[in-house]
Amino acid sequence: xxxxxxxVGFSFDGKDVVDGVSVALxxxxxxxxxxxxxxxxxxxxxxxxxxxxxxxxxxxxxxRPLDAYSKRHLAREIALVPQNFYINFxxxxxDVVMMGRYPYIPRFGRPSARxxxxxxxxxxxxxxxxxxxxxxxxxxxxxxxxxxxxRALAQDTPMLILDEATxxxxxxxxxxxxxxxARRVSRESGTVLAVFQDINQAAAYCDxxxxxxxxxxxxxxxxxxxxxxxxxxxxxxxxARVYHDDYSQALHVVYxxxxx
Amino acid sequence: MDRDPPMESRGLGRRxxxxxxxxxxxxxxLLSGLFIVSTGMGYxxxxxxxxxxxxWGGISGKPDAFAGMNEIFPVVVMDVRLPRxxxxxxxxxxxxxxGVVFQGILLNPLADPYTLGVSAGAAFGAALAxxxxxxxxxxxxxxxxxxxxxxxxxxxxxxxSGGSGGLSSNNLxxxxxxxxxxxxxxxxxxxxxxxxxxxxIIFWLMGSFSxxxxxxxxxxxVCVAAGASVFLYFAxxxxxxxxxxxxxxxxxxDTRRVTLILLxxxxxxxxxxxxxxxxxGFVGLLVPHIMRLLCGPDNRRLVPLSxxxxxxxxxxxxxxxxAVLPAEVPIGVLTALIGGPFFCYVFRRQSAGRxx
Lengths: 260, 356
Hints:
The structure holds two protein chains of two kinds.
Chain A: E1 3-12, E2 15-25, E3 30-34, H1 41-49, E4 56-61, E5 64-65, H2 71-75, E6 78-81, H3 93-99, H4 113-125, H5 141-154, E7 159-163, H6 171-188, E8 191-195, H7 199-205, E9 208-213, E10 216-222, H8 223-226, H9 229-236, E11 239-245, E12 250-256
Parallel strand pairs in A: 3-8, 3-9, 6-7, 7-8
Antiparallel strand pairs in A: 1-2, 1-4, 4-5, 9-10, 11-12
Helix pairs in contact in A: 3-5, 4-5
Chain B: H1 9-40, H2 48-60, H3 72-105, H4 118-131, H5 141-161, H6 169-193, H7 198-206, H8 214-233, H9 235-241, H10 245-250, H11 255-277, H12 283-295, H13 299-324, H14 331-351
C-alpha cells in the first residue's frame, strides 16, 4: 500500500473537518476525490502531505507512520500540485521547475546532468518549455498552474497528489496533464490521488473514487460502482443521470436543473 | 532589462553564474576604491598612496611603512577614520542582508529589517537607557539596551503570531505593526518625560557613525559575519519558502524551524546595526530591491551581492555627510532623503508595467 489511513480525524475550532476516514491507496491506481465545497477534501490533502497531523487515528505511508519520515525523504516520495499558488518574487520558470529537484541536490551543490535532463523533459511534457526564461510573476493563472505541475513532476515521486490541479486550465492542457499523471500510474505503477470539481473529468481518469461529504467518506470503490445517480443526489443534492459514453469510453454524468 | 532569448539551459546557468561573478567583482572593486578614497577624505586630506601605505603598515605591523609622511596621518586613519568607515560598511551590508531575509520570509518585497518592529524595540531600549542615564556599563549601556530591546520584541511577536495559523507571513507582519505602534507610543512618552535628555534621544534615533570605535566595528563585524553564514546556509530554503510555506514543506523544508532560525538571525543582525548606528532607514529596503532587479531573486546570489551593495551605499552616504557636506547631517536623515525619492522612481517604473 502507498497510503493507509486508519480512522483519521481532524477538527478545527471544535468542528470535525475530517472524521473517521479509513482508506487504503494502492500503487498503480488513479484515485479521485469528489465532494461538495467544504467537505474536507483539501484538509485530507493537507493530512496526506503532512502539513497537518491527524488528531485521531493514524496515517501510514509505505507501512510507516507519516511523521516517522524526514521532510526531505518525504519530498522524494510525495509531490503535491496545490489548488492555489502565488509567488511574489520574479523567479524564472525554469528556476521554479528546478526547485522540484532540490530534495535531490546537496545543499551547496549544483544540479547534475540528470537533474537538468529531468527538468527539460518535464517542461516539455507540461508544455512550459517555451516559457522557460519568463518570470513566473508575469504568467497567467493557467500558465502558472502548468509550471507548478511541471515542478511537481520534476520531484519524480511515486506518489502524486493533485488538489484541483487543473481548475484553471483549458481543456487541452487539462487533459494533457492528466494524461501524464495517468501514464505515471500505468507505466511506472505510481499512485495518483486527485481532487476534482468536475465529476466527468474524475470519471474519465480515475480507477477508484472516494466521495466525501461533511468530513466523512460517503462512498468509495471502483468508479463504476460508486458513481450512481443516488450517490450524486445524496452528496450534491442534484438530479443526475449516469451512463457509459461510447465515444470517450468512460462514464458520463449529465445534470438536470431544478428549474426556476 | 531586455528579456534573454531562449537558450539551452546549462549554457544559461553558466552565463548567469558569470554575470553574478562579474557583478560581485564590480562591487568589490567599487567598495575597495571607496574605502581608500573615503579614508583620504575629511578635514585632513590624505593622498591615496599614503592611505595604502598606512593600511599596509597596519596589517603587517611594521611601523617603518609610515616613514616620510606626516606623522598625524596614521593616527587619523587608524584611530579615527577606519573604525568609522568599517562600521558604516558593515552596518550597510548587515541591514541589506537582513532586508533580503525579512523580505524572503514575509513573502513581501516591500518588507525591511524594521517591518517587524525590530527597530522600534531597539529604539525603545536605547531611549530608556538614555532617559535613565544608565552608565553602569559605560559607553556600551545604550547599545546594549538597544540590542536587548530588539530580540525581546521578536520573541513577543513570535508568540503573538504563533497561534493556530502558525508563523504565516500575514500574522508576522500584523503582529509587527501592532508591536511597533505600541512601542512608538512608548518612545513618544519617553521623549515627553525626558526634559533636557530629549535632544540626546532624538539625535540617537536619527543615526550616526561619528566617534565609532574599533570595539563597535568588531562587534558589528562578528554579528554580521555570523548572520551572513546563517543566511547563506539557509539561502536555498529561503528560495523554496518564497513559493509559500506549504510548497516549501512539500519540497522537504522544515518551514517552522527555518523561519524561526532566519528570523532570529536577521533580527540579531538588524538589532546590532541599530544599536551601534541608530535607525538608518531605506538601506534594508532599497538595496535588496535593486539587487533583485539586477541579479534576480535567487537568495544564494542575492544575499552576498546585497551585502556588498549595502556596504557601498552606506559608506558612500556616510562619506558624504562626514567629508563632503559643509555640516554633518544625521545619516538616517540622509539615507531617507536620497533613498526615498529613488525608491519612488524604481517602484513607479516597476509598476508602470516593466517586467522587472
